[in-house]
Amino acid sequence: MALCAGAAAFLVPPALEYRAAEQRYERALAEHGRASEDRDAARSRWDAAHSDVAGTLELADAATPEAALPYLDEARVGDVRELAELIRGAADDATAPETPDADASKPETTDELDAAADELEAQADAASAAAERYDDATKIVAERAPELAAAVDALRASIPDRAEQLEEANVSATAQSRIRLHYAADAAATGEESVEYYVTAYAEAAAAVEQSQRDELAEKDQGDGLIDVRLEIEEFVRSITGGVRVDFDWAPVVNGLGEGDSAGGRVTWQYLDGGSATMELSNSVAAHWPDPRYESLVAHESGHVITAKCQDMLTDAFDGDAELMATAWAIGMGYDDPWGNGVNFYYNGVAPAQDLVDETTSCR
Q: Confidence class of residue 162 from pLDDT cuts 50, 70 and 90?
């Protein structure tokens, strides 16, 4: 009996060890399954969130092409890029190696059970960590995606204002280049498709305005020391013509006048896009500025410029007589020197009737 008891005592421990290993393996297998399911659910949530934000990320890139950056609101570009970087960083963090499925065959020995349990526990920990990364990334996207969409909208909505600033900084650029800039800015701000194309086209239009400014300034510098005076006169015209865009051309002789004390001016205008005009002036205007006679002449020509925004007045009150309207308008603005304002040149010293002068005060 003692021998049998001794034999039984010798056999029990391996059986217990095997059973403990088997139970541990079963727990590890169950935990591996739960962790894998949690990871898969978290990955599905992440995939949905990532898919939802993909279009916003594409729009963010389309709204901020490198070529357009000098012509976009710098702070708003920074907002867009920072948020996009946060979301992309979350996507990088969410990337994790796949946790393999558990081996379907059950280990046989105690050592094999322990080794399999070790591997299952490690895999379950990795799956749990992956699930946490997926959920963290999903949370970041849920918080930041609406902010990114709003930032992109704000950036695009700011483009027309940026175009206004660019025009103000390049007032010597041709009217047509500035008009094209605003059309391009509106398309970049509102286009629902091909956003990158429209934003890039806006940037090209902005660069064209800057180049036009350089070209026009170079043209005004005729080497006679009068460029600053020419620019002063042009600013004077802009200050009294109610926002009509004006191009300026300077020449020695305009309308056959410009030699000696004489001065010539000519204006052509059109009514589209808020009205624009081209004013030609003889260099003698700059040479004698700010003599009141020449001021009055420029005021008369400005009366033609502002016709671009007062077409009905020209037609209804002045029966289409552009010279009469320009003369009356100049007088109404206070430029009453008859030598330059048109009274002597067109009307033999007889000023327009006061009611016509008064009529022009509504055109400013």
A: very high
Identity at 34, one-letter amino acid code: R
Helix (H) or strand (E) holding 247: strand 245-251
Residue 142 to residue 133: CA distance in whole angstroms: 14
> In the chain, where are the structural domains located?
12-157, 226-362
Give a three-class secondary structure readout of 88-100.
Answer: HHHHHHHCCCCCC
In this predicted structure, which of 75-89, 104-118, 196-210 has the lowest mean pLDDT? Answer: 104-118
pLDDT, tens digit, 9 for 90 and up, residues 228-276: 999 999 999 999 999 999 999 999 999 999 999 999 999 999 999 999 9
For residue 11, what are the contacts with CB-CB under 8 A and spacing of at least 6? none
Query: Does residue 347 sit in helix, strand or coil?
Result: helix
CB-based contacts of 148: which residues, under 8 Å, 6+ apart?
Answer: 53, 56, 57, 60, 80, 83, 84, 87
pLDDT for 70: 97
What gap in Å lies between CA 305 and CA 293, rounded to an integer?
Answer: 19
Report whether 101 contacts 29 (CB < 8 A): no
Report how far residue 163's alpha carbon sits from residue 1's, in angstroms, rounded to the nearest whole number.
Answer: 105
3-state helix/strand/coil string of 58-89:
HHHHHHCCHHHHHHCCHHHHHHHHHHHHHHHH
Q: How far apart are CA 271 and CA 42, in angstroms?
A: 62
What does the alpha-carbon distance between residue 340 and residue 344 come to, in Å, rounded to a whole number? 8
Please tell me the pTM assigned to this model.
0.84
**Cβ atoms of 275 and 269 closer than 8 Å:** yes
H helices of the chain, in order, are: 2-63, 74-94, 110-157, 159-169, 175-190, 195-220, 227-240, 283-288, 292-305, 311-316, 322-332, 338-341, 343-347, 354-359
